[in-house]
Amino acid sequence: MEQKKHIESLGFVIKKEKLSNLASDYKYSELLLEDLDPFPGFYDHYHIPVNDHEQKPRSIFAIVRTMSLEDMDDFIRITMNIKRSFAQRFDAVTGTLSLQNNMVSCIRIYMDDYAYLPQLIDEFSKNGIEFLANKVVKPYSSLINIHKFFSLEAIAPGIFKDIDLADTYYFAVNRFLTWQKFEAITISIRNNWEHKVYDAAQAGIYTKNGLIEIIRVYDRKASLDRLSYLREKYELEISRIYQI
Predict the structure, then answer these.
(1) Is there a domain that residue 174 lies in?
(2) In a domain? residue 64
């Protein structure tokens, strides 16, 4: 992989999170899910407290009837139009997640103030986005694939910092892994390392030469040494699996 100081590109993030119906006083007619454990390797599994200065990240997943990569251009246009007049800042991207043994399309939403979420959902509906009807969804673990735009800064060969997201880093690996293999490797590395409070997910960036396979790490105490160590461990485990 050719090293560049800045990378801006479309790509994806694959992660597993615990989802359930959005807890809200507002009665939505649309099916909205929230992540109960946004960074499974960081917060809840290790009982990290969240205080006023460290607000827990939160995603809302609005389940739509149909949406494919072919619809992405239209969705981006719709989102841009809504942002021009909407009162609050938000981020919305497309993706898929598993729901009751099916893969469904979704819109992942971040907002500064979720009190404005009903108005945002209404704006998407007015622009032709059709949502699934609300129903009871008990907490469950879902594999989620989000399509997003990356803006990264190189801090070492093959290691990048997210310009838009705090405490979020990426490093390149030389092979794609199925989620099952990635999860098994991640658990093994964490269990054999004293620094356990971080979260890892799969990701990829599209370039003119193809797809760059990367791993996303969320770590409030990340250092270049720790990121380099993680990259070396993942590469070692990947080479063992595929005998590279």
Answers:
(1) yes
(2) yes
